[in-house]
Amino acid sequence: MIMLTAIGLLPLALLGAWSIHTVSDYQQRDQERLMLDLARAVASAADAELDGVVSTLTSLGHAPALDDGDLRGFYDAARALAKAQPDWLGVILTDHAGKILLRTMDEYGAPSAPVADPVSLQEVLTTRRPIAGRIARGAGGRAAFPVRVPVTAADGKLYTLTAVIRPDRMLRLIERQQVPGGSVTTIRDTALAVVARSQNQDSTVGMPPSPSLVELIRATGAEGVGLARTREGQDMATAYTTLSHYGWAAVVGRPAEQHHAVFQGLGMYGAGILVSLLLCIGLASLLSRRLVVAIKALQQGAAALGTGAPLVLAPSSIREIADIGKGLEQADRQRAAQERERKLLLDSLNQALDEANQAGRAKDEFLAVLGHELRNPLSPIVTSLDLLDRRDEQASRKERTMMRRQVNHLRRLVDDLLDVSRITSGKFRIDAQAINLAEVVRHAVAAAPDQSLTLSAPEAVWVDGDDSRLTQVLNNLLSNAARFGSNATEVRLSKDATHARLEVIDNGIGMSEELLARVFEPFQQAPQSLARRTGGLGLGLAIVRKIVELHGGQVTAASAGAGQGSRFTVTLPLVTPPAVAPSLPGQAGAGGLRVLLVDDNIDAAATGSALLELMGHEVRVAHTGAAALEALRQQTPDVAILDIGLPDMDGYTLAGAMRRQLAGTPLRLVALTGYGQKEDVERAYAADFNLHLTKPATLADLQLATAPLEQAAI
Questions:
Q1: 28 and 44, same domain (yes or no)
Q2: Between 23 and 57, whose confidence is greater?
Q3: Rg (Cα) of the chain, in Å, rounded?
């Protein structure tokens, strides 16, 4: 009877043990992968913040005052920039030998304080590249870290620009992350000192790492997962990465008891099965000792029970035999219950595995590819409409196409963040219509001024497609070429009798045959160093392939080998060009003013310039603050219309710089911004603007901006 009980329960115990081991191992690896992905996301976000600081300092380094050797003027510009940045304590300028020339935290000409973190200053002078320094506390006890950028002036002199930044900037970055409850997220500098921490920030900032974290990093390498103990003495399941291109580290810790709670529950379940098995064996042993003679008489029935056959017992007047019969019947019922329990366990296991697979797919499909330039595209649309109304044209293909592109961009700003998720789930769609692919290509190439591009394209190539998605295809291919070393990219558009052929040819690092076979698969990239200079998640070409396939076309890649560049070819079917209504001449407006229009949105600047010229004004366009100041030096305008959100400096800083540069020469300044609250208007007038306009600017707004000053102020 002992053997029969053991035989009945042993398969269930073995299956339970195997199930517990499989689920525990899978869930542990999945949790470690999730924590490591979160650490990577925090590191990428920190790099993006530091990149933004480097970009701002680089733009400041192109200030005219520095090129002219006017340190006093540069001090004013740097101090205005520092005040505009909420987390900046100030800006420091040092010469080629590391000597401090000015500090915006002090008055101009004040005695210099000692250089904080001289190691990073020496490093930026040696390497000539941007450096994020170490966290430190100043004389006043405030914690801050430096971001240093080398700058070469027009006369060839080498300077170093340093932004001194409070760690609150990184703390807010951590607070924006979605982390499990009880987790501790930390950003550490190159010496692994705490820059920002989700718990006990004030008391831990600047503290060195715990010995257990140092040991984990030494044992695991550039990134990994393991156990470490915090400075507060709490054991944590810890994931970290040190693959930031600034040498910083991101660490995510979760209490060890939470990390293992699910495994403890499964272990208790396994212990319950074992205890049940032991209890059943003990009970059977007890009964067997008392009824050993009767059990021999019931061997046939016991054998039937052991084989799973129906249990049939003959009636007996012997009490012991009757009791044994009842015991066999009970064992039969237990066996049936255990079979049901085993089936439920198998069903639960299958359900758990399905849920785990679904969670894995959801995680893999969700990509942290955040688009930038999420500004409101309504302004160029409204301006284009005003152009059409003022010209009284029946149809204007160029403006209509531009408006459609901007409307589609606005409608898909959020959807674009989920492109890969939609592709995976089969929900990716395009809005196809007859478009001139040549115009789409010309616009995309014109919107990439920072790349060395050559374009060869006919006047018109008509396809049935979605202009914003095809723009995305070309942008992804150009971005891919730039990231992988191309400094001379050629874009060719041609057609034959049935198909359009778009080629992007670069002179970058090229591809091996192995990479060519999988280059259009998600998360595939050319090999990179640990610094990951090129960045990216390897999704751009996968999205390109899906978009092209939805257009009924095909995309291919070719390369002669490593170091010999790459060629990407997109083939799309041609369609019949649509009928185009003849254009009517526009009516020129009155005015005759010299207008400087500053806007980093190329479409908004183009349409705004066209409308102002149609009103009869002479218009010059700039897309950055530095370009605007250069245009001001060349010619003084009557009116300057400034966008507030510029890439290198905000409109308020630019307005002050223009007033100082003109030194009293009359100039009407008009603020153009997407913010229209009372405090925004007050801030514009406090910055010496004559007029505040809220985007999108209409024809009436532009007429008001170019009207006599006393009329504009009504």
A1: yes
A2: 57
A3: 35
What global pTM score does this model have?
0.39
What is the average pLDDT value for the chain, to the nearest integer? 79
From 255, 281, 299, the end of a domain falls on 255
Residue 195 in any domain: the answer is yes
The DSSP secondary structure of 601-658, one letter per residue, reads -HHHHHHHHHHHHHTT-EEEEESSHHHHHHHHHH---SEEEEES--SSS-HHHHHHHH
- Classify the C-alpha dihedral 586-588-594-599 as positive or negative: negative
State the helix-helix crossing angle for 540-550 and 467-483, rounded to 10 degrees.
Answer: 150
Here the CATH number for the domain that contains residue 134 is 3.30.450.20
- Residue 404 lies inside a defined structural domain of this protein: yes
Condensed to tens digits (0 to 9), the pLDDT of residues 526-572 reads 554 333 444 455 677 888 999 999 999 999 999 988 888 899 999 99
Question: Both 493 and 351 in a single domain?
Answer: no
Examine the pLDDT at 372 and tell me if it is beyond 60: no
Percent of the chain whose pLDDT exceeds 70 = 75
The DSSP annotation for 214-258 comes to: HHHHHHH-SEEEEEEE-TTS-EEEEEEE---TTS-EEEEEEEHHH
Residue 316's SS3 state is coil
Antiparallel, parallel or unpaired: β 235-241 and 223-229: antiparallel
- Give yes or no: residues 467 and 329 share one domain: no
If 0-12 CB within 10 Å is exposed, 13-18 middle and 19+ buried, where does residue 162 land? Answer: buried
Contact between residue 452 and residue 506 where contact means Cβ atoms under 8 Å apart = no
Structure token digits, residue 161: 């620009």
Task: Give one DSSP letter per residue of 363-422, joined into a string.
Answer: HHH-----------THHHHHHHHHHHHHHT-S--HHHHHHHHHHHHHHHHTTGGGGHHHH
Work out whether strand 594-598 and strand 618-622 pair parallel, antiparallel, or are unpaired: parallel
Q: Which residues pair with residue 93 across a beta bridge?
A: 102, 161
439 shares a domain with 413: no
Token duo for residue 583: 């254009």
Cβ-based neighbours of 191, under 8 Å, separated by 6 or more:
134, 208
Q: Decide if 274 is inside a domain.
A: no
Question: DSSP readout, 172-225?
Answer: HHHHTS---TT-EEEEE-TT--EEEESSSHHHHTTPPPPHHHHHHHHHH-SEEE
Q: What is the CATH number of the domain that holds 467?
A: 3.30.565.10
Do residue 61 and residue 144 come from a single domain? Answer: yes
Number of domains in the chain: 4
Structure tokens at 434: 């007859």
The whole domain housing 624 covers 594-706
Contacts of 695 (CB under 8 A, 6+ apart): 376, 378, 379, 672, 673, 674
Does 81 lie in the same domain as 32?
yes
Q: How confident is the model at residue 657 (pLDDT cuts 50, 70, 90)?
A: very high
Do both 54 and 195 map to the same domain? yes
Judgement on whether residues 63 and 201 belong to the same structural domain of the protein: yes
- Can you read off the two tokens belonging to residue 14? 């073995």
Identify whether the C-beta of residue 541 lies closer than 8 Å to the C-beta of residue 525: no
